[in-house]
Amino acid sequence: MALFSPDTDIFCERDALREDYQPEEIVGRDQELQQYVSALQPVINGDQPANIFLYGKAGVGKTACTRYLLHELKDDAAEFNVDLTTIRTNCEDLSTSYQVAIQLINDLRDPEDHLQPTGYPRRQVNQWLWEELDGIGGTIIIVFDEVDHIEDDSILYQIPRARANGNLEHSKVGIIGISNDFKFRETLSSKVQSSLCEKELQFPAYNANELRDILRQRADIAFYDSVVPHEVIAKCAAFGAKDAGDARQSLDLLMEAGDVAVERDADQVTVKHVDEARELLERSRIVDGVAGLTQQGHLVLYALVMLHEEGETPTRARAIQDRYEIVCDRAAVEPLVPRRMRDHLGELSMLGIATREERNKGESGGRYYEYSLDTNPDLLLEALDETVDMVGVTDAIQKRLDHDI
Ligand SMILES: Nc1ncnc2c1ncn2[C@@H]1O[C@H](COP(=O)(O)OP(=O)(O)OP(=O)(O)O)[C@@H](O)[C@H]1O
């Protein structure tokens, strides 16, 4: 018998649940799409496109809606004889305007004419960029996804102004900047703010009803008929809505639940499979998160787990520092100064392993943070295995470990 064989009872197109799948229809974003369409209207009129700044948390459909609308726009532009080119650049690995310009030039050039990442005068690079863009002609829309990664923002000013400054003659260029960093807008220079944020669109988090519609649409493509009952969709949607209103999270959960059903040889996905899937996802999120921390991060986390087990959380950074220094002493590691230790606490809360809440001292004034654990300590201790060996266990942790056995 073959070791691998296609299993066909549950999924008919599992890839439809993957992040890179582009849905043909967008659901639950009517109002946002309407605003987006009117921001793009100048393109169809043959005018200079408006620059658009689109922001919202992770997984709220910014990329999916942008891809969908630009696809529609291209079709309609062809019908109305508008010469339209769209370029998409993910800025995740680009931190300067120089790098962005090089990337754009290389996207537009044949591979044999590609530039090296460094070593050219800036003016020359800009000149090449204008030549490439002007060579295309017509209307060009450049999408900068994760635009907040660009630290010096001059390119976000220069591109929209290129035509007015006489750098472009044949092309009209507009940019769409996408970001999930709400504070990014404030960090922009006022020049960039007024050009990039000409039209601002905000995508709110999804509620459970919207997530249900998105999941149902995708489940109908990904699974065979009647494999995913209504309550499974409702459960995945409720989970996503409670956490962050993030469609990606709910879709991942549904896919994992489908995998569990396949593994169990079931003929339907059940609510129990969703529960199991949640545990699996949570486990891998934590294991990956902890594995990505440095040794110092592990020691800070272990200090916080100890305090949690002793019932001492939520607690302030100062108390964590004291415990962390004891932990370092036992591990024979030089402790970090409080400020650096707090950076690690910040990272833990960013990863969702810990939570950080701001407190107010009341009349006497002054604000401070309190930290607590936001994760199952069993999982953390498992992931912190080596650190536990190095530092040893306290009574409180021993009790938990005994209890688990
Ligand atoms: N309204 C929607 N209709 C159908 N599918 C959607 C919708 N919104 C999001 N999705 C799906 O959810 C997933 C995440 O959406 P998307 O990548 O657009 O989020 P995003 O806001 O760009 O997030 P990030 O900031 O993390 O890139 C994708 O698989 C996308 O197809």
CATH class of the largest domain: Alpha Beta
Strand order of the largest sheet: 2-3-4-1-5
Number of strands: 8
The H/E string reads HEHEHHEHEHHEHHHHHEHHEEHHH
Q: Return the CATH topology of the largest domain.
A: Rossmann fold
Binding site for ATP: 60-64, 206, 218
Protein name: ORC1-type DNA replication protein
Pfam families: AAA_16 (PF13191), Cdc6_lid (PF22703), WHD_Cdc6 (PF09079)
GO molecular function, one term: ATP binding
What would your notes on this structure say?
This protein has 405 residues and is α/β, with parallel strands linked by helices. It has 3 domains: 30-202, P-loop containing nucleotide triphosphate hydrolases (Rossmann fold), CATH 3.40.50.300; 207-289, Helicase, Ruva Protein, domain 3 (Orthogonal Bundle); 292-404, Winged helix-like DNA-binding domain superfamily/Winged helix DNA-binding domain (Arc Repressor Mutant, subunit A), CATH 1.10.10. The protein is 53% helix and 12% strand. Strand 3, helix 5 and strand 4 (171-179) form a beta-alpha-beta unit. The two termini are 39 Å apart. The chain binds adenosine-5'-triphosphate.
